[in-house]
Amino acid sequence: MTVDPEQLRLVLYPDPILREPAQPVGEITPEIRQIAARMIEIMREADGIGLAAPQAGLGLRIFVCDVPPPPEPLEPEDGTQAWTDGPIVCINPEFPESGDARTPFEEGCLSLPGIRGDVVRPEIVRMRATDLEGKPFEIHASGLLARCLQHEADHLDGVLIVDKFTQMSRMKNRTRLRKLKGG
Ligand code: NI
Q1: Measured distance CA(81)–CA(89) in Å, rounded
Q2: SS3 43
Q3: What's the 63 CA to ligand 1 centre distance in angstroms?
Q4: From CA 116, how far away is CA 139, in angstroms rounded?
Q5: Strand, coil or helix: what is 44?
């Protein structure tokens, strides 16, 4: 793979790359580090809290996220983590454990401008991934971080929020989605 990270740009729906399952990352090369750095840049430029590689036009199982604490941060009492201390890079993420999907919460997506709607997901998840040093790590996430990790991991399987919207949100966004599709 030869990629010029500087050339990476935010990809918008309905670009077909957003629908393709992404490939696992092998060795963490300098190129992968540059790609991750550029992804963080794109996420920040777009004022987002997460970005997956397909959204930068790359079919790789990498995402970045930077989830701010709430205005009055209350450390969760169950030992979970609800925000990040700055941007993190997650490579080849897996979810060995998650609760029942029963909590609706409004989500948007940088690749779907103007579209927002309720998605039902588990409130707490455990995620394992590899960092940029090639070291495995685990996050037991709740709150906005749990949302963000699951949303970004969905991108790696070609899944978008519009696929998971509640029926009400689907109806609410129908016209906007059609406009995006039409370019
Ligand atoms: Ni998204």
Answers
A1: 16
A2: helix
A3: 10
A4: 26
A5: helix
Sign of the four-CA dihedral 23, 28, 30, 34? positive
Query: If you measure from the C-alpha of residue 31 to the centroid of ligand 1, how many angstroms do you get, rounded to a whole number?
Result: 23
| The two structure tokens encoding residue 151 | 């949303």
What is the CATH number for 49? 3.90.45.10
Q: Do the beta carbons of residue 96 and residue 139 sit within 8 Å? A: no
Which sequence positions are flagged as catalytic? 152
Q: 11 and 18 in contact (C-beta within 8 Å)?
A: yes
- Single-letter residue type at 25: V
Whole-Å CA distances, 23 to 5, 61, 78, 88, 155: 18, 6, 34, 20, 12
Enclosing domain of residue 80? 5-181
pTM over 0.85: yes
How many CB atoms are closer than 10 A to CB 82?
Answer: 19
For the four alpha carbons of 122, 63, 47 and 109, in that order, the dihedral sign comes to negative
CA–centroid distance, 137 to ligand 1, in Å, is 23
Work out how many domains the chain is built from and give that number.
Answer: 1
Least confident of 24-33, 37-46, 137-146, 174-183: 174-183
DSSP structural state of residue 28: -
Among 17-26, 34-43, 68-77, which stretch is predicted with the lowest mean pLDDT? 68-77
| Cis ω for the linkage preceding 14 (within 30 of 0) | yes
